[in-house]
Amino acid sequence: MRERRRGLRLSLLTRWTALIGTLLTLGMLIALALEHYFPKNPGLVIGVCLLCVIPLAIITIRAELQRMLSLFRALTGTVTSYQDGDFSFSLHWPQNDELSDLVAAHNALGDVLRQQRLDLVQRELLLDTMVQNTPVAMLLVSESGPIVYANIAARQLLNDGRKLEGHRLDEILTRVAPELLEALARGGDGLFTTRDGEEEDVYHLARRSFNLNGRKHELLLLRQLTMELRRQEVQTWKKVIRVISHELNNSLAPLTSLAHSGAELVRRGQTEKLPQILGTIGERTRHLESFILGYARFAKLPAPRIEAQPWQPFIEQLGEQVIFKQTGEAPPEPGAFDPAQLEQALINLLKNAHESGSPAGEVSLEVRKLREGVRIDVQDRGPGMSDAVLANALVPFYSTKRSGTGLGLALAREIAEAHGGRITLSNREGGGLTVTMLLPLA
Question: Domain Histidine kinase spans what residues (predicted)?
Fold first, then answer.
């Protein structure tokens, strides 16, 4: 390729050298002819030669340069077209020289830009089709107020399917539900509910601000969650019914059998086994009562009554109800929490640690103060959890135990979140599980 380009440069140089050589040769021939007729007047000979050669040289060089200047003007025009987004032009140069190489490179650039523009148009068409047909209502609003873009869902939700572009957002919002106005006034993302008679619709509002063409814009996303929440609600109720039905069957079937056996023994006059049968019935009844109360506590968890509580007395009182090893020293500053609810949450976590198969002496509890809050760690040396169990352990009614209700961790999570905190689970190095509860400072 380098040798080919060198050859092209030589072809252009050769053509100009041949042109200059031809003009010089012509001048010499004219000079020789005139010298024959005017041997004693060399000045006249030179003058006549110049008068003959210079106009020819000017005409020839101008004709040669004219084509090159036309090519340069064409190059300028195509570059201007590229700047305007028009990539349909291409150039042609008949000579096999350096300029043909330049023209070929220019045409190749045009082909690349044309293909990129075509790909961009296709992607924009695909994106616009997706945005227009998404069920999420999308509004792009400029800083000055007018709506720049709205998809079909936004038009149907806010303007009965009519065009929204060009209208001011505050004018459109005067015709929508007041709950949407309240959600926009609160700022940020969040859920809100609209009511039309007895019908309720739940929406999620998301807002994002960014600069577009040097001006501030805001993107509003409105997603209707009513149907999705109803499907999730139905699935949750089905799961609750399955769990309750399973537990009731497990308890009532033995009770029925024991009651029948007791009645048969009474009929035969063999009453010596009745205390054992009645004791078993009482145990199953207490288990069923505990099961039902667990669901009731989860469903009717009241708002926490937060008050200042010293940590060490609270931990000592907790130790009277369940066995654990305290790790480290409790924070000297009092915490802010509902003692009854937090005690219930930690009892659930500690009982889970014991039921994991961990040695009782390896179940520990640690409370320490962090810069952003208080961290409570409950640790054990059981088998830990698989990734699938870790992902679902905090979901209500999820349990890997045969007789588990799946409410212990869920109730602890509910209590932590009601206090403005959260719960995380992680496997320990060397085996076991760490359940971490983070609570905000007072």
Answer: 243-442
